[in-house]
Design a protein that fits this description.
This protein is an all-alpha fold. It is 81% helix and 0% strand. It is globular. The N terminus is likely disordered.
Length: 470
């Protein structure tokens, strides 16, 4: 009984670490979703004309992913020297400042700058939070624990919709509420140490072992702690003296990991998820939902589905594995987007019903796989010496195409209609099926050090799961 209580306590500690780091995801989701409720009162109070000011409004809306693009570059350069914990603390400070500046903005320029600051914080935190969790978690729970970050994103989006409903026409309070989870993130990370792997990489072995023991809720002398620490030290020794460069990322050793990480984020963004999140009320309007209240209610329903299915995905990720979930996710999104596109192209009388049902299936399929798994695999596949830089480059793909999709959606809809845009997104999801089948490895239950050894072996990365199972 005593041993069972200790085991449960150890699990509680790692869940606490994942939940605190996951607050960065909640902030990401909130700052993406809050614009949906704030846009209408913003236009009224700041005198924004949706036609003549369309470009300026689009830049303001897309300032978060653009700022995140810059934040990912800076975060990748500083991660090895500054550490995961310190960068998360600075990101939390920027989140607070950006939220308050947004709430006090007197025009589009100030608001765009405020959202650029928030985006910068998102870019740094979106790298550091999954990395912090991944480098702290046991191999058998790593997928589910890193997925807490994606769950937090969905909760942040839903929270933004709720805040938009609660404050109705007061967009300043909507933006100001973003400071609350930012303060909690700062307080939580401040109380934590950095990850054992980063501490060991910096030559702080005693601190690394102590941190590992605290995370596992076991004494430093425990054989399991000693064995895990020895594996970490061995990997650090292999990488000693190396300083990752961009040339390393395209070397035969690391290139397969880079292709997987970048490819999954490219496919995630081009599946159209952020167009749906940012412009959900517009999508429902184009689908025949005439009432603004109905559009908001339907949008909130999509947010609830997003949260619930992300929880389902977390429960399955370490049971079914990464590859199978991705195949299910891409198949579901391709079918749902294709159905909406066909209904819109044929001007179906039941377009509103088909759009709602299709978006529910799309969000469900995305949430169980395409949403969380790029974050999980990005934090897993790179070797220790290249992990921060590799995640930085993968994040650049994520934020760059996030910006492109969000900025281009109104233009594409005006040019090709809802049918053409959703048809394009459906084709991307079909490509995701092929990419997963041919290139994505199975990392479920494989330690970070085992993944690194496989990369060094020169064997195809896609064979990793099969070799581990054998």
């Amino acid at each position: 009984m005593s041993g069972g209580r200790k085991s449960a306590k150890g699990k509680r500690m790692i869940y606490l670490i994942a939940a605190i780091a996951g607050l960065a995801g909640a902030l990401f989701g909130f700052d993406e979703g809050v614009i949906a409720g704030a846009l209408a009162p913003l236009r009224r109070d700041l005198g924004i004309d949706p036609v003549t000011d369309a470009a300026a409004e689009g830049l303001m809306t897309a300032a978060v992913p653009f700022g995140a693009f810059i934040g990912a570059i800076v975060g990748g350069r500083l991660a090895a020297a500054a550490g995961r914990r310190k960068l998360l603390l600075w990101a939390a400070v920027l989140f607070v400042g950006g939220a308050l500046l947004s709430a006090l903005a007197g025009g589009l320029v100030t608001l765009s700058l405020a959202r650029l600051v928030i985006g910068f914080a998102v870019g740094v935190a979106a790298m550091m939070a999954p990395l912090y969790i991944s480098e702290s978690a046991p191999a058998k729970q790593r997928g589910m624990l890193v997925s807490i970050y994606q769950l937090a994103i969905t909760l942040g989006i839903l929270g933004a919709y709720v805040v938009g409903y609660a404050f109705d026409e007061n967009w300043r309070w909507m933006f100001a509420m973003g400071a609350v989870p930012a303060v909690l993130l700062f307080a939580g990370i401040f109380a934590m140490s950095d990850t054992p792997r980063w501490l060991a990489m910096r030559g702080r072995g005693a601190e690394a072992k102590a941190a590992l023991a605290r995370m596992r809720e076991k004494p430093e002398s425990d054989p399991a702690v000693a064995a895990e620490y020895a594996e970490i030290q061995a990997a650090v020794a292999e990488d000693e003296g190396r300083k990752a460069t961009f040339a390393d990322l395209v070397s035969p050793r690391v290139r397969p990991a880079l292709i997987v990480a970048m490819g999954l984020f490219l496919l995630q963004q081009l599946s159209g998820i952020n167009a749906v999140i940012y412009y959900a009320p517009t999508v429902f309007q184009l689908s025949g939902f005439d009432s603004a209240a109905t559009q908001i209610l339907a949008t909130a329903g999509i947010g609830v589905v997003n949260v619930l299915m992300t929880v389902v995905g977390m429960m399955l990720i370490d049971r079914l594995g990464r590859r199978l979930l991705l195949l299910i996710g891409f198949a579901g999104t391709a079918v749902s987007l294709g159905a909406i596109a066909i209904a819109a192209a044929t001007d179906s009388a039941a377009l509103d019903t088909l759009a709602l049902a299709g978006l529910v299936l799309y969000i469900a399929s995305f949430a169980i796989a395409i949403g969380p798994l790029p974050w999980v695999m990005m934090s897993e596949v790179f070797p220790l010496d290249c992990r921060a830089l590799g995640m930085s480059i993968a994040s650049l793909v994520n934020w760059g195409f996030n910006f492109i999709v969000v900025f281009s959606f109104p233009v594409l809809v005006a040019e090709f209609g809802l049918a053409g845009v959703f048809g394009l997104y459906a084709v991307v999801c079909v490509a995701g099926l092929a990419f997963t089948q041919w290139l994505v490895p199975e990392t479920n239950g494989v330690s970070l050090e085992e993944i690194e050894r496989h990369l060094r072996s020169g064997r195809p990365l896609r064979e990793l799961g099969r070799l581990h199972a054998a």
